[in-house]
Amino acid sequence: MNAEENANLSGALRRPSVKKNVAAIHVSGKLTLLQRKLSNVLLLNAYDTLISRSTHRIDARTLCMMIGYNSNDTESLKASLRGLAETVAEWDMLDEKGRQEWGVSALLSFAKLKDGVCEYAYSPALAEKLHDPKVFALINLNIQRQFTGGHALALYENCFRFIGTGSTGWWPLETFRRLMGVDGSEYYESYKHLNAKIIKPAVAEVNKVSDITITPEIRKQGRAVSHIRLLIKRNPQLSILDIDDGAGLRKGDVYAQLRALGVSDRLARQWLTEHGEDYVSEKLAYVSARREVKSPVSYLRRAIDEDFTAGSDKPAAPETPRAKQLKAVQDAVAARSPTRRDADRALFRSRLSDAALVEDFDRHGWMSALNAKAIFAFWEDVEPGIFEAL
C-alpha cells in the first residue's frame, strides 16, 4: 500500500516527555489479525470523506480481497464486521486549550452488506478524532499484508507512530498486555511467558517484514519486570514511505496546483512523497500543455505512473467508441480511493493466466491493449452500466 493507514487507531499512548500530550486512541488488542486489517482498510477507504460524509461504501469483493478472505466468503466478512461493531474505541487527550477530553465509542457505529457493497459508518465523535492528522499516520498496506500474526501487527501499529521520537516511552506491563490483547490471561501474568510467546515472536516478525526495526527494553521493580519500552528505527531495506502528517507538503505550490486540478488531499501527498515536487511539477506542466485532455486528473495519473515526457508519443486517444470506453474506465479508477484502486488492479491481475497478458497489464495498467476486452468486462461487472451512456 503507496498507501495511508491507521497506525494510531490501535492504541497510541501519551508520551510523558512531551508537554502537550499527543492524541491517544485505544482499541482492544483482542481484534484478530483479519479484523485489524479490515479496520485499517475501512479507515483508509473512508479517510478523504471521513468528516464530510456520514456513511462510506466499498465493494464487498474488493474488501474481502484486501484482507485475505475468499471473495465469496461473506459469512466471515459479516463476523469480522460484527466484531468491529462490538469493539470499543477509547480516547484520552488534551485539546488545544489544554483541557482533558475522554470519550468512548464503538469502532463502527453500523455496517451492512447489500447488493455486493459494504456500507459502514463511524460515530461523529470518533470520526473527528480519526481524521486528525496527528492521529492518522501513513501506513503502507503492502506492509500490512505481510503480517501473519495479529500480535505482530498490533505491535507494529503501536510502535509505528513513535518513529519520530525513536521510542514508545515506558509502558506498564498491564498496558502492554492490554494492547496485545492478552490482558485477563493468568498465563501471561508471567513475564517469562509473555516474553516467550508474545514479545519475542512479534518483535521478530515486525523486524522481518516491516519498514521499522524495534528493540524491547525492560525495567524492573525489585526482581519483577514492571515496564517495557520499544526502541524504534527505520528499516532501510524495507522503508517504502516517509512519514509526513501533511503539514509540510500542504504548504507547497505543487500541492496547491494538484488540489486546484481536483486531486484529493491524500493522493496529492502520496504523489509528492513518492516522487518529489520536481517530478510531479514536470508532469503537471506536461498535462497542462495538452489542451485536448478531457480528464486531466486521470491523465496526470498516467503521466506520473508511466513517466510521460515532452517527447513521449502519448497523444490523447481519439473519441472512438473504444476511446470512450477507455475514458470511462479512467474516470471510474480516478473516482476510487487508493485502497480500492490497488485492490481492483490486484483482483484483475489475479485473473490473468497468460504471462504475456500479465506483463502487458503491469506495463500499461488499465490502458493495456492486450487486455482491453477483459478490462471492459471487469469494469462492467464492478460497476454495472458503466458503458451504457456511451
Automatic annotation (TrEMBL):
GO terms, biological process: DNA replication initiation
Annotated GO MF terms: DNA-directed DNA polymerase activity
Taxonomic superkingdom: Bacteria
InterPro entries on file: Initiator_Rep_WH1, WH-like_DNA-bd_sf, WH_DNA-bd_sf
Span of domain Initiator Rep protein WH1: 18-159
Any single Pfam family the record assigns to this protein: Rep3_N
Family under the similarity heading: Belongs to the initiator RepB protein family.
Protein name in UniProt: Replication protein RepB
Organism of provenance: Sulfitobacter donghicola DSW-25 = KCTC 12864 = JCM 14565
